């Protein structure tokens, strides 16, 4: 029966366009329907032959699933079939909530242990006393060894009101601790942080666009505007996007009623839509900077693109992801679902923000967020290169399509020292702070001292951490050449001198590396003591893009020039993008 349902579904999917036309296209539609039906029959005959005659017994459900996935893989990476157990992932972004215990979890340490990064405020996990650094070694008696975070989510989440038992390993305790938690509805907050920065600049960090994004953004704006700030920073960095209606709700809080926000264009008539701002915006006039980076995608690009095209905000950071496909959800038999690309989206100036290659950076794309209502499209983003086509903002500034939103002011973050990358990748900052808190208790606040940095240095030395050296492979190759050609000792002494110089430069007492270590220790200890709010505040230290945003908002002359001067030139000591 399941196979029959799937085949019927495939027939409907492949032939749906045959019923979309009007009477004058009936003949063409009939031909297409017959062609589709013939292909489905071929698919069925192959399946029947394999299921009946293959040398081994086959799992028919698995065979059909792989057949569906194989078909979809020929399209784009965002048209995806979701098994019933994964549909809850789609509903989570739509509803902005899920049923669970309220913890952020990750894999930490060399053994990739399932570790609590932070309990979420006012949730069962926080109320019962789970702590950052707790290792979950079992869920309802089942060992978590080898678990991925997806496995953990599947076992820990469940129906509201039901119980789950976590077995925890905690530093300072010899025996594991069992915690029985009653699952509850956990609200996902889209606004991660709201506050006032230096020089009375308002700041809002929006991390996703679920169904709650519009309401949360309005509440955050009202809170910030009570302080009568000199300017506002909307941080959309690493925001992967979400629902199209939420992107529109956020945009219209900054744009006059009637302003174009985004348009969608697809093959069927209902995908041809133009969305405009409605109602009275809360923050129509306040000077504004929007921060974006390569992780800003989907709804983030709709908001930043609309504000840029209407000269409403200065965009600062690095070019956004460039993911511009509209998607809808089709419910399938057996509680499965199909997330299907139905259109492309365009900014008010007409830019298509799509990459040339759908599959570029595919690994960086999170699970696409979708709406359960097939009539309401969602954003999921991708791209076609239109970089040679010039578009114009309301003020006449030149902007370009192709490959995401290009900021008005490009500020690239500092490159991380290779040793720092390895420390971070191996979770050394998290592990060290976890041990430090075990030994020193959990004070109200902590300032990271030189002694703590030195303690970290000793910690990684005990772990026999190997500093990655730039040019290390080249030196090894040069040694091989010297040995092969039997070069004299002076050659090898020179190589030794070069290697020693590189090692000296990359020791932990390197000022830049020490500063990187200090900032990351501060971030981890802030997260452990104060959760997400403290962690975000800690991340402001050394944030070059944020500092530039504050500088622009403080300098009203520069701000106006960036938004109104059609022939933009270099302003101050920062390089501004010039029209090509």
Task: Explain the layout of strands and helices.
Elements: H1 2-15, H2 26-53, H3 60-72, E1 80-82, H4 87-95, E2 97-100, E3 103-108, E4 113-119, H5 124-128, E5 135-139, E6 142-143, H6 149-156, E7 163-169, E8 177-182, E9 184-187, E10 191-197, E11 201-206, H7 213-225, E12 231-235, H8 244-251, E13 260-266, E14 273-276, E15 288-292, H9 299-309, E16 314-317, E17 325-331, E18 337-346, E19 378-380, E20 390-392, E21 398-400, E22 409-410, H10 418-425, H11 428-440, H12 450-462, H13 472-484, H14 489-505, H15 511-539, H16 544-554, H17 556-564
Parallel strand pairs: 11-12, 12-15, 15-16, 16-22
Antiparallel strand pairs: 1-18, 2-9, 3-4, 5-6, 5-7, 7-8, 10-11, 13-14, 13-18, 17-18, 17-19, 20-21
Low-confidence stretches: 1-22, 360-387, 566-580
Overall 3D form: globular
| Cα gyration radius (Å) | 27 Å
CATH class of the largest domain: Alpha Beta
Count of helical stretches: 17
**Into which percentage range does the β-strand content fall?**
15-25%
- Distance from N terminus to C terminus (CA atoms, Å) equals 60 Å
CATH topology of the largest domain: 2-enoyl-CoA Hydratase, Chain A, domain 1
By helix and strand content, what is the structural category?
alpha+beta
| CATH architecture assignment of the largest domain | Alpha-Beta Complex
Q: What is the subunit arrangement here? A: single chain
**Biggest β-sheet strands, sense, barrel:** 6 strands, antiparallel
Q: How many β-strand runs?
A: 22
Question: How helix-rich are the residues, as a percent range?
Answer: 25-40%
Mean pLDDT: 80
Looking at CATH, the homologous superfamily of the largest domain is 2-enoyl-CoA Hydratase, Chain A, domain 1
Work out the count of structural domains. Answer: 4
């Amino acid at each position: 029966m399941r196979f029959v349902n799937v085949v019927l579904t495939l027939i409907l999917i492949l032939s749906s366009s045959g019923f979309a036309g009007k009477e004058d296209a009936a003949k063409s539609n009939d031909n297409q329907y017959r062609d589709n039906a013939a292909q489905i029959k071929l698919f069925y005959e192959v399946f029947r032959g394999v299921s009946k005659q293959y040398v081994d017994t086959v799992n028919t459900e698995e065979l059909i699933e792989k057949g569906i996935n194989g078909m979809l893989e020929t399209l784009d990476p965002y048209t995806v079939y979701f098994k019933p157990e994964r549909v809850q992932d789609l509903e989570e972004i739509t509803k902005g909530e899920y049923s669970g215990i309220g913890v952020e979890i990750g894999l930490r340490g060399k053994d990739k242990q399932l570790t609590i990064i932070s309990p979420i405020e006012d949730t069962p996990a926080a109320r019962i006393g789970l702590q950052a650094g707790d290792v979950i070694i079992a869920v309802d008696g089942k060992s978590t060894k080898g678990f991925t975070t997806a496995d953990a989510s599947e076992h820990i989440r469940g129906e509201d009101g039901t119980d789950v038992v976590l077995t925890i390993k905690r530093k300072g305790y010899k025996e594991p601790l069992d915690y029985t938690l009653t699952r509850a509805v956990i609200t996902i907050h889209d606004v991660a942080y709201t506050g006032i920065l230096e020089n009375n600049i308002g700041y809002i960090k929006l991390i996703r666009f679920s169904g709650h994004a519009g309401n949360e953004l309005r509440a955050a704006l009202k809170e910030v505007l009570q302080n009568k700030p000199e300017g506002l920073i909307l941080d959309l960095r690493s925001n992967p996007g979400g629902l199209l209606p939420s992107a529109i709700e956020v945009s219209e809080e900054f744009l006059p009623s009637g302003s174009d926000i985004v348009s969608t264009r697809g093959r069927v008539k209902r995908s041809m839509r133009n969305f405009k701002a409605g109602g009275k915006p809360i923050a129509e006039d306040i000077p504004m900077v929007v921060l974006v980076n390569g992780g800003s995608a989907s709804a983030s690009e709709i908001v930043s693109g609309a504000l840029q095209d209407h000269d409403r905000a200065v965009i600062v950071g690095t070019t956004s992801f460039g993911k511009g496909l509209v998607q809808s959800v089709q419910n399938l038999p057996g509680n499965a679902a199909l997330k299907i690309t139905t259109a492309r989206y365009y900014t008010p100036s007409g830019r298509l923000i799509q990459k040339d290659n759908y599959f570029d950076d595919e690994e960086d794309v999170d699970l696409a967020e979708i709406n359960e209502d097939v009539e309401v499209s969602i954003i999921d983003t991708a791209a076609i290169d239109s970089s040679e086509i010039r578009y114009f903002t309301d003020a006449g500034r030149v902007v370009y399509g192709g490959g995401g939103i290009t900021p008005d002011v490009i500020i690239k973050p500092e490159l991380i020292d290779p040793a720092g990358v390895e420390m971070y990748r191996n979770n050394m900052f998290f592990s060290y702070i976890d041990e430090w808190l075990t030994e020193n208790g959990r004070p109200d606040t902590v300032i990271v001292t030189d002694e703590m940095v030195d303690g970290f240095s000793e910690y990684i030395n005990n772990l026999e951490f190997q500093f990655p050296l730039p040019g290390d492979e080249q030196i090894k190759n040069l040694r091989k050449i010297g040995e092969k050609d039997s070069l004299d000792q002076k050659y090898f002494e020179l190589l030794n001198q070069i290697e020693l110089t590189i090692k000296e430069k990359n020791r932990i007492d390197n000022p830049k590396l020490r500063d990187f270590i200090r900032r990351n220790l501060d971030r981890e200890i802030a997260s452990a003591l104060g959760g997400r709010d403290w962690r975000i505040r800690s991340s402001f230290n050394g944030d070059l893009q944020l500092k530039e945003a504050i500088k622009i908002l403080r300098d009203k002359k520069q701000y106006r020039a960036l938004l109104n001067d059609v022939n933009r030139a270099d302003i101050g000591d920062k390089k501004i993008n010039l029209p090509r």
